[in-house]
Specification:
The chain is an alpha/beta fold. Helices cover 28% and strands 17% of the residues. It is built from three helices and three strands; from the N terminus they run E-H-E-H-E-H. It has a three-stranded parallel sheet with strand order 1-2-3. It starts with 21 loop residues before the first strand and ends with a helix. The model has no long low-confidence stretch (mean pLDDT 82).
């Protein structure tokens, strides 16, 4: 059976019917050169920006690929946390607020 508007059950968070973009936050420790980071760039290049509001959050430093993310006009923030403070409770609140 092909999905149609009549047989798709939408949840309250389904943005196809509300017209709102769904925020997607990609969380990385850093954007240094690596396989996962390069895959993130591929995802960000091809994501449907009419349906999704992509953002990137770096917990530590920005890394080499941060400028490329910004060239794609994707909002990016770096919390500049160092490794021994990364999992402190007050930093967890900073991450959750973002």
């Amino acid at each position: 059976m092909k999905p149609t508007d009549s047989n798709i059950r939408s949840s309250p968070r389904d943005n196809r019917f509300t017209g709102q973009r769904l925020r997607v936050v990609h969380v990385f420790v850093t954007l240094n050169l690596g396989g996962a980071e390069r895959h993130l760039l591929t995802v960000l290049r091809h994501i449907d920006k009419e349906r999704f509001d992509p953002r990137v959050l770096c917990l530590a430093n920005r890394g080499e690929l941060a400028d490329e993310v910004e060239r794609l006009n994707i909002p990016m923030t770096s919390l500049e946390l160092n490794s021994h403070r990364l999992w402190m409770p007050w930093n967890q609140f900073r991450i959750a607020k973002w």
